[in-house]
What does this fold into?
Amino acid sequence: MNATLERYNTFILDVDGVLVKGDEPIPGAREALRMLKEHGQVILLTNNSTRSRLQTAHRLSSLGFPVSPEDVVTSSYVAARYLLEEFGPRKVWVIGEEGLAEELAAAGHALMPPREAEWIVAGMDRNLTYGKLAQALTGLLAGARFLATNRDATFPTPQGLLPGAGAVVGAIQGMGFPPEQVVGKPSAIAFRIALEVAGGSAKAALMVGDRLETDILGAQRAGLDTALVLTGVSRLQDVTRLGIRPTWVAEGLPALARGEMASP
It folds into this structure.
């Protein structure tokens, strides 16, 4: 392994924009992931709440990535675990997709109608409707608290950027109910749980992501070194524009795995 990477024994990788775009692997990413797994613990930390850990692992395995559910931390899992650790099993109503509901149920939370819910939990929902927003409002007016998986404005696909969970969260906030907590990146909650799953420490961990304002900023706040790869959302000129400076920049995960990184 390149000397630059030898200082790290834990690698936390984003998924969309680092390994894949939509359902298409980024060229060279499969072998790069194998290379990193040979030299340290690798955890995939994704803000995508539409799939559970199991679903995410199955999806990536079907695309040729050597991934098991234990290697994955999704924002849906983070939301479920956060609620359980902080409040115990709760009654929840989900505005999101199957993976979010699956993780909440697996953690012991009860899926309830909105009027009976103690928490409204929102994530990305590609089938968002006015009716779902009306149901969310019903629950919130009845006293439910609001938890968001993340605020990602967009996510990268081969066809370009599409709306992310931030569009759903923003619609609910537009009704007068901002989220009480947002657990996905850049929240420290997401990085704490990822490190706990990895069994690693922040000082020997490297976060690899494609989005400065979530992957890089959040990891910096959590005390991790960071590497921006240029295969997803953020571009090199965004480093200056946003004032968020990663430890390293690499053209993509294959370049990073070969140690081809530079300080921005």
Remarks:
- The mean pLDDT is 96.
